[in-house]
Specification:
512 residues, alpha/beta, Alkaline Phosphatase, subunit A, 14 helices, 18 strands, globular
Length: 512
Amino acid sequence: MALQPRLTRRRALQAGGAGALALGLGACNDDLESQVSHADDAPNTLLIVTDSTRRDFVSAYDDVDELADTPNLADLAKESLLFEHAVPEAMPTGTVRRALITGMRSFPFRNWTMTPALPQEPGWNDIYPYQPMFTEVMGEAGVETAYVTDNPFLVGPRFVDFRRTLNMVRPDYSQASYRAFNRPFKRPAARSAIERYLFPKLSDSIEVQRLREYVGWNNLYRRRESDYSAARVIRSGMDVLDDLKDKQPFFLGVDAFDPHESLDPPRVYMSKYARVKGSERQGIVPIQPWDTPYSRVFDLGIDEETVERVRELYAAELTFVDRWIGRLLNKMDDLKLLDNTAVMYLSDHGLTLGEYGLLGKHAAYPNWPIYRVPYMIRPPGGRKRGQPARSDYFASTHDVASTLLGFMGIRSPGLMDGEDLSRLFEGKKPYDDRPYFTAAYARYLICGDGRWVLITHSENRRTRLFDTQADPEEVVNLVDQYPEIAARLRRVLEEEAGGTLPQFGDEAVLGG
């Protein structure tokens, strides 16, 4: 595929990019022309995002969990470049979506202030006025844009400016009534209707009201598999394709909140896990098995079999999502669009399912189940002979925008500091060789070099160092044995953050 020459932004030019951004592009390497357009032979682009998806549950990877069953993602991976060590630059859900849309890093959250209706932790902001949005750039370049999602933060009030950049937006509110709008659902299920979905230790938690609203909403609409949330979103994406096929080149984003909790797959997907385990002997099907964002297994008073049952529910939910991703890709093929469409698939983060005695996402434990995510790119027509099948490059969430624009031959705004990974299919290397990855989850920071991983608080406490070659489960803390390695990785974090790390108060950055 021959694209027109395009300009590539560099991190070093960010400081001078604001003025150019007003023209719709940024300071570029070799040309300051202000025109924004797509290549004459620009392909379509499809972005598929699933929430809370652990890399080791996606069967395209070698270290896959035995519970995983994701044949459609495996088939997609066979035609894609698979990234072995992809890490979100900052987490969780809302922070990742901002990086996807703007192509800009959120780490180290230096400009964070508490935003109403969003979680009160560093990183949770809406999109700032000065930040570019790749959908807006695409629109200026004459690309038709569409996005379908049930992600409660994207369909809620905080990302309204993003939705305004789209030609077509199809929000689904089945996950959003109680999470994004901070107002009660008018027809919640009775308390008695949700008792069987909760561990007794959660009977006085906020999950009671959340489940009442979740069950109440879905009881109104759900009659068959296609009525479940992930199916509704992906089916909406399939319907949008009928409108887009005659408006090429187009961009379509399909962003499913599943397999995020509640872990509530159609029962047919539990058929491979027929044996009743743990708490289900007492009639509890733990679709909401922790107090969001996390619970300690010990505090829940559950046994190992019940933890395994939670893992099975998660695997079944992901299997369900995978099946509908397959249907979406089949629809693309039926419409003869795949040969002219670049496909990106990734997740925003994972979650812990019993590791470290936790269920869910604990910001102080953003270890491998959280930071290692599936990430693959299928070029138009599929990966060609001789192109690499796997990459050790530390691909990240802020690379998505520049990569999508790159495939279409559209110049990225100078403020976008992600890499254009479409270059890899032209035999070119990324401009930033990234010997390290750096990431953030609330007040905790992560740095790795492919072997060593450092996890530390922004105030340089609770520091842990893991040798992932000898200890892939990241259990043994070696910070006392190898202080020089910990110091090296800490310096990388500080350098990536601009020389110092910010210190956080309850509502804003205090200094640093």
